Every structure is written in structure tokens, then in C-alpha cells.
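Holo prediction. Input below; ligand is adenosine-5'-triphosphate.
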Amino acid sequence: MADTATAPATGPGTPAPVAEATGISKRFGATVALRDARISVAPGESHALVGRNGAGKSTLVSMLTGLQQPDSGTLRFSGEPAPAYGDIGAWRSRVACVYQRSTIIGDLTVAENLFLNRQSAGTVQPIRWKQLRRRAEELLGEYGVGVDPSARAKDLTVEQRQFVEIARALSFGARFIILDEPTAKLDARGINRLFDKLRHLQRQGVAFLFISHHLQEVYDLCTTVTVYRDAAHILTAPVAELGHQALVEAMTGESASTITVAGGSPGARKDAPELLAVDGLTLPGVCEGISLSVRSGEVVGLAGATASGNVQVGETIAGLHRAKEGRITVGGRTVRTGSVPSALTVGVGLVPEDRHLQGLVNNRSVAENATLTVTYQLGPFGTVLPARTKAFAGRMIRDLDIKAPGASTPVSALSGGNQQKVVVARALATDPQVLVAIRPTNGVDVKSKEFLLSRIRQVADGGKAALIVSDELDDLKICDRVVVMFQGRVVAEFDRGWKDEVVVAVIEGVSGGTVPASASPASASTGTDEHGG
Ligand SMILES: Nc1ncnc2c1ncn2[C@@H]1O[C@H](COP(=O)(O)OP(=O)(O)OP(=O)(O)O)[C@@H](O)[C@H]1O
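Structure of the complex:
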């Protein structure tokens, strides 16, 4: 297939790329993060950058946004050399990045965030708050962002925060925006709205570099795709000319036919004992009367969009929220809701939704993070033997295919997807009776996803129970049953063999008439067994 990046189209009449990186190399100690890498983004182009976890994508972003300097190589914006390192204003007027984790300040209002450090014309002039709000209103209106400028940023949804960040970037004059896994925390509707906005901006000449592990999104949104593998540029091609299989092969260096999502397990026997039972769980303002059970040997999916309450139900099973009503038992033992120690004692393991807030201790090593929950296994009488910790972690690194120089590497030095694997490793380390995994493959590349899901399947195959809380169809496909929540209630249940569009419709609350979207959990179950899921 053609590598269109090797000979960039330049010449009279061809506008210079909004961003162009050539010969970029970057090392972190012994790790080569980028080796002679390149990318070229044309004005108004929607360009995808894909690659496996640790391929070097975020490292490139940090160079393109002036956060880090390459060891060697050249960066140009619209034909001009990149601004001096540290000249924040100049970088901002050329490029902005919207990260999965927001960079806006939660305690400030939207208007304050938009005009942070530029509230008044001069250092001695007072800030005119009324004027600031009006300017914010104009700015948001100009880019069609329907957000109240006086709202606190922390009260915005993920989607609204991203729109505010995009508006802020455009207001600095940038016509090149990098989106680093922007859809990871959005549900299907949020993704559609984001894509609509991006297409609209693209028509106005804004170019995007779009990073995602969801390859379908690349096909939906982008015209050009660049693949990195093992720190190097592999290819750049028009998306329309690169089939899904060829794209996966370029990312992995292997034939795509070897990659399948786990799902062939026979699943649980119907008479297997119930390991997890949730009965009439009510969290005020979140969910009401949720009942579900997971048997030994079973993987159950708890699906739902952002406002469905499915994540909070998963977190409550792990002791993170106190319930107003209802009972949770694991192997017949009651979990005291709102008590993490109680959930741990009865054998609940959790893969949390946000690995940064709930998962990892950043400056500690992979070994320490992976074994935090199992220190009692690492030495006698409450001691922790470093050699045992390292051996334990070494097994996990191999087991979960974690790309790290060694067990003593701090987790902050790992790529996002590899950090996620450490979080899963930690949950698995306790050998839980019930594993609650919330969006476990978030940020994980296509091949590692298969790996993580098959490890979760193995937990159940070993006689334990797993609950996958997710709206990702790939995650749900390994489940023996999928329970769907909508606006705080269980509305449907599917046995294996469901059709994508049917489950998506129920998640979205547009059941399409196939599934009884009853508000009563007791009468909501339905099964479809005629299709391959
Ligand atoms: N600050 C750092 N110190 C040490 N190593 C680092 C640092 N930042 C990145 N690396 C290493 O550089 C390599 C590339 O990482 P990078 O974050 O760019 O990958 P990525 O393609 O963005 O992966 P992911 O899809 O998981 O986000 C990895 O091996 C990573 O461990």
C-alpha cells in the first residue's frame, strides 16, 4: 500500500502542512520512545494516529505541543519553524491538545477557564467580570458550544468540558487540534455529538490529529491514518484505501487473523452456585431497585450509557458507595455498602473506572502498584520482601504483556494502556471471588484488549464470578449474559447471541420495539438466541 507521507505534496498552490514533524527521536533513559518518526497534517485534514500501547503516540503529542523537546528532528507549523521551547503563547496559537483527562480547572467557572491568564488587558488593570462573562458567551456562541459561562467547570459533563477546551484552543488562534483518546469517557451519543462538532469545525478549515484505540472511529471520522509501531513510523495512507485487517496488521506486525476477541468459553452452568447477589439496590438519584446475580463460572456484563448508573452499581459492589436500600452478598456473605474493607474481606476485586483517581500510585513502581492489594502474600508477619514483590510483579508483567523496562519502573513512566494493565493486574492479584471490572479495556490497544478480556474470562472459568461494567461491545461479547441499565433501572437482559444493534438500541433507550424496555427489573428479561453475538 502507498505511503503517502514519504513524498509530501508541496509546491505552488499546495498549502503547507499545519503541522509537520520529521526525523523525530526521543529517548527516556534506556527506552527509545520515538525513532526517526514523522507525521504531516494538512490544513483541514482529519488525521488519525494509531498504534499499540507504548508505540510512541503520546510522546509525539508532547513534542507537537511543546511540552517536551525531541532529542533530534524538526517540527514546523504552517511551513514555519516551531516556536522556541517554553514560549507558551506562541505554541498555543499553533496547536492545542484535548486530553482524555481534562486540563481545565474544576473550581473555576467556564468563563474564568476560557480567559485564564488573560482576564485583563494589563497587569495593573482590574478584571472586569461582567465583560469576561460576555466575551465567554460570545466565544462559546461562535463555536456553537451551549454551556453557561458562569457554571463551575467541575459541574460540566466530560463532553461539555471537551467542547470548552476546543473553544479555548480555537480562541488562541490554533487551527490544529490534537485529540488524545477523546472518546474514552463518552457514551455513544456523546461520541456522535463530538464527531458532529469536529466535522463542522473541519469544514471551517480546522485540522485534527485524532488518537484512538477504537479503529471504527478512525474509519468514521478520519481521511488519513498514520501507524506507529515500536517507536517508528510504519505507514501513512488514506483511510479509504486501508482495510481494517491491513490496519491491524500494520499496528501489530502480525497477521490480523490471529487476533480474535475471547468468547468461545462454554460459560457457566445454569445450576452453578450464585456468587454475587445484588438485591433491590437503591442509590438516591442514581438507581432504584437494582437486582442481579452472577453465578460461579459466569461473566456478566452490566451495560449502560453514562447516565444509566451502571458504573455506580459496580462501584457499590466494591464498597465505594453507601446504598439507601438493598443488599449485596458475595458467596452468601453480606457486603456492608460504603465499606471497601468489607468488600475486600468477602473477596471483591475492582478494576476502577479512573485509573488516575482510583487506581495507581504514580511515583511507585509497577511492582509496588501491582501488589498493593496482596502485601500479605509477600512476606511473613506483615513484612514485604522486595525479592518476592519483584518476582510476583515479574510474573504479572509477563502474564498481562505489560510493556515496561522492568518491575521497578515507576508506573508514571508507562504508556496509558500499560498503566491500565497494571490496574487489571492488581485486581487479579487478590484472586477475587467476584471481579468487578469497570470499562477494563479503556485505552488498551486492539491486541492487548483481547488479552485482558481472556484473562477476565479465565477468572470465571476458574469457578469465580466476573461482572464487566461497560458499554463497549467488545467487552460485552465475552459475557455469558448482558444486563442493560437505562436511567437507573435494569431494562433488559440478553443471553449470548445478541445482535449489536439490539443491545445498542436498549443502551441508548431506543429499544426499537424488539426488547421490552420495562421499568420493572422483574419483568424486563429477554433473551435472543437466534444470532451470533
Ligand atoms: N516520562 C517517561 N519516562 C520514561 N519512559 C517513558 C516516559 N514517557 C513515555 N515513556 C515510554 O515511552 C514509550 C512510548 O510511550 P507513549 O506514552 O508515547 O506510548 P503511546 O503510544 O501513547 O501508548 P498508549 O496507547 O498506551 O497511550 C513507552 O515505552 C513508555 O513507557
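The chain has four domains: 19-95+174-258, 105-171, 260-347+433-533, 358-431. That is the main takeaway for now.
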